[in-house]
Amino acid sequence: MPEAVTRSETLRQRRRRRPWRAVIALGLTQIIGWGTTYSLPAVLVDPIAASLTVSPAFVFAGISVMLLVNAASAPVLGPWIDRLGAARILTVGSIVVSSGLVLLGAAQGPVTYLLAWVVLGIAMATALSTPAYAALVEIGGRAARADIATLTLFTGFSSFLFWPLILKLQQHFDWRVIVWTFAALHILVCLPLHAFALPRRGSSTGASADSGETATWGGLDQSRERLGFWLVVAGFSAAGFVGWGLAQQLPGLFADLGLAPVTAIAIAGLAGPVQVAARAVDMAFGGRTSALTIAIGAVALIVTSLAVLAATVVLAPRGVDAVATGALVFIALWGTANGLITVARANVPLELFEPARFGTWMGRIALYQNIAFAAAPVVLAAVLHRAGPLAAVGLAAVFALAALAIMIGLKRLVASAEKACGG
Questions:
Q1: Region for residue 53 given its phi and psi (left: phi exceeds 0; alpha: psi -120 to 50; beta: otherwise)
Q2: Quick check: helix, strand or coil at residue 199?
Q3: Which of 43, 47, 256, 389 is the most buried (most CB within 10 A)?
Q4: SS in 3 state form for 240-254?
Q5: What angle do CA 376, 380, 386 make, to 5 degrees?
Q6: What pLDDT, in 10s, does the model give residues 223-245?
Q7: CB of 61 within 8 A of CB of 48?
Q8: What is the pTM of this model?
Q9: Residues of the chain whose pLDDT is less than 70?
Q10: C-beta of residue 265 within 8 angstroms of C-beta of residue 43
């Protein structure tokens, strides 16, 4: 018996050990991954549109294609992540991202441009977010919540670092050269980190595979679990519609309100460091506050930030100073909210469902979430350009309020499930 107790205590200590090498490696690859894919069109939209003879809206449609393909790929890849281990999927993902960027740089028209984003959609499912989070869950099980929050501290810098970098490179190089350089970055930096800096399935502590940790629902009520799943999907899809839809529009929106393009990009890019600070708050309070409670607070903050953005649009005729002040206040609130919601998007499923099937759960959720994320940039861009900024902000507010109501309902469902399971 003492020997069994000692083994159990040793396992608990190993699970509590922070996998810093994995977190740092994944932090670097996620910064590069998001910065060289999702962040590209916001800065390169004009040269890409001119080179391919397409509209700016069509350039942003590439992101929608990426998200839709990711939505279709994620449920298929989720079980493979659980079965083979996240490190192997991420290593393959680095090659897929590089291939997609090579195709993007070689695009000669609308068809080849969208084809490149199809490949990048598969890359998103194999190299961004879900497999990275799953790698940490494999090491720490449900205790990986803090590690996921730490990882998102890194990824919050992607647009902050890559938007100015792309803008600087654009002064000296053609957009195709920039994209091909980023393709090489994935082979030279990301692939080795994924291949050699992450533990393989069976060589790590294996916390998620054999921990015996169960879902919040305790297996007693599958109907509650199914309802909980759909509320998670609906709540984060609605919140993500706002976040993913507006993020790409902010530099252009601020410029349309009177700010110089460089200033507009700089202010919009500040959302990255603000998100990092917000994720540090989640790390500080994550052990004492449920991820779902933090998600509810984050969505309430999104609603508040949209009210500030609406006021900024109204005050825009008063001059650049009014716009700059309003934009900075908005970014402070917006960045904080999105920083928290990004962490919660991974941690709420980890909190509510069994960690051993984390990849599978996240893949199923991603199917529906990414459809909403894909539609958001196109829908909000269309509303913004046809009906004006206030209409776009109003539509975003409707989705944010819906997300808030759904998450409050999920909180009540969880409370009833915990009561039914005996606490």
A1: left
A2: coil
A3: 43
A4: HHHHHHHHCCHHHHH
A5: 150
A6: 777 888 899 999 999 999 998 88
A7: no
A8: 0.74
A9: 1-18, 201-221, 282-287, 420-423
A10: yes
